[in-house]
Amino acid sequence: MPATDNGQRTTERSRIKVAVLGTGSLGKEHARIYAELAASGRADFVGLYDPVAETARKIARRYGVRAFHSVAEATAASDALSVVTPTTTHHELAKTLLQHGKHVLVEKPMTDNAAQAAELVQLSRQHRCLLQVGHVERFNPVFQYLESVAGEPRFIEAHRLSPYPARSTDIGVVLDLMIHDLDVVLAFVKSPLVSVDAVGIPVLSKSEDIANARLRFANGCVANLTASRVSPERMRKIRVFSSGPLTSYISLDYRAQEGFIYRIARDGEEQSSLLKKLLHAKDSTIVSEFAGKRILRQPVPIAKEEPLKLELEHFIECVRARRTPLVSGESAKEALDLALEITHQIAAGSAKEQ
Q1: Alpha-carbon distance 189 to 56, whole Å?
Q2: What is the pLDDT at residue 208?
Q3: Is the backbone peptide bond immediately before 245 cis, with ω within 30 degrees of 0?
Q4: Per-residue confidence (pLDDT) for residue 11, from 0 to 100
Q5: Residue 249, Cβ density class (10 Å: 0-12 exposed, 13-18 middle, ≥19 buried)
Q6: Contact call for residues 260 and 250 (beta carbons, < 8 A)
Q7: What is the pTM assigned to this prediction?
Q8: Which segments of 269-316 are extended strands (E)?
Q9: 219: DSSP letter
């Protein structure tokens, strides 16, 4: 990404001045991680702003930074900002920041309106500023592992369930939760989307609280995604059947950052030292055998890390190096457009029932 022309140029060795707008449940975590990055010399955490001044002051005192009195004050003091506010405020805030030549990480969904999202993408180009969107699962070691082993996904199933939230109630479950899996699947399946079928119902709110979407891609891959925010349990899981040189079934847990891969043991592998080592390892086993072939279940080798920290480190590094982020505004808009199509189908289905 080219350097900006607004006097805010940063060199490779400089420390990016970063601020946080919004100190709710997620904004507090942004503040914590930026403080950690500042302590290690990788950023300059200058402060935060929240319309609830006492909350902002409390968190600012915790990390020894400024509690700004306004968005304008935070903007003037920063090179880059995290927008961690209700979805309905994302467009206006991000628009203002981009127009002032600031680099922006806006939490997902980037907006609740396709035209507004397109405008933010255009402004980031016009003002030569980085626009990253907070689709944090892209930075989860689970997804990174999945990309490395499942080269030809044929069927994908994802479940993202939670109790009713105390936040994000201004949007439905598709924009709140399912959009994570939409972003992951669009990034994972290297083929055009050809059809979408969706259903959903409201339970505790005016918008959908439970939703299911079935996506079909030109290469034949199918993805079945379910999201609920009225579940008694929390779940963030993905299961993938993959063909190719290594036919496999992979079951992964985003929250626990663990899972299993099921595959056919290769010819002669039952006699190999590798298989013996695997079968003596924790949770490794042969789960099925037929006609001389064996299905091997192995725990996956995932090094656990905090996805949000990886995401914010990536944001700062992309600003410093003028590099397009992994989840750019353009990429996030694709997931948003699909999420909006799903919500439109759900709304149309509800209207027919009335």
Answers
A1: 41
A2: 94
A3: no
A4: 43
A5: middle
A6: yes
A7: 0.87
A8: 285-290, 293-299
A9: T
- 262, 296 contact by CB (below 8 A): yes
Distance CA 19, CA 280 (A): 50
Secondary structure (3-state) at 143: helix
pLDDT in tens, 84-126: 999 999 999 999 999 999 999 999 999 999 999 999 999 999 9
Please choose, from the candidates 259, 311, 256, 312, the residue with its C-alpha nearest in 3D space to the C-alpha of residue 139: 311
pLDDT at 352: 67
Instruction: Summarize pLDDT for 290-318 with one digit per residue, the tens.
Output: 666 778 888 888 999 999 999 999 999 99
CA triple 321-20-235, angle to 5 deg: 95
Query: Which distant-in-sequence residues (6+ apart) come within 8 Å of 242 by Cβ?
Result: 149, 150, 151, 152, 153, 154, 248, 249, 250
Residue corresponding to tokens 């030809």:
152
| Residue 198 contacts residue 342 (beta carbons within 8 Å) | yes
Let me know the angle formed at the C-alpha of 249 by 247 and 251, rounded to the nearest 5 degrees.
155
Residue 222 bridge partners (DSSP): 155, 216
Is residue 10 pLDDT above 80, yes or no? no
Please report, for the chain, how many H helices and E strands are present, in that order: 11, 15
Spatial distance between the Cα atoms of 86 and 74, rounded to a whole number of angstroms = 18
Per the listing, tokens 């891969």 go with 261
Phi, psi of 51 (to 5 degrees): -60, -25
CB–CB of 21/71 below 8 Å?
A: yes
- Cβ atoms within 10 Å, residue 90: 27
From the list 82, 89, 122, the residue with the least C-alpha distance to 105 is: 82
DSSP states of 230-248: S-SS-EEEEEEEEESSS-E
- The pLDDT score that the predictor gives to residue 63 is 97
Q: Which amino acid is at 224?
A: N
Chain centre distance of CA 176: 11
d(CA 336, CA 339): 5
Q: The sheet that has 152-161: what strands, in order across it?
A: 193-201, 210-217, 222-228, 152-161, 235-243, 248-253, 258-264, 293-299, 285-290
Residue 351 pLDDT exceeds 80 = no
Bridge partner list, 4: none
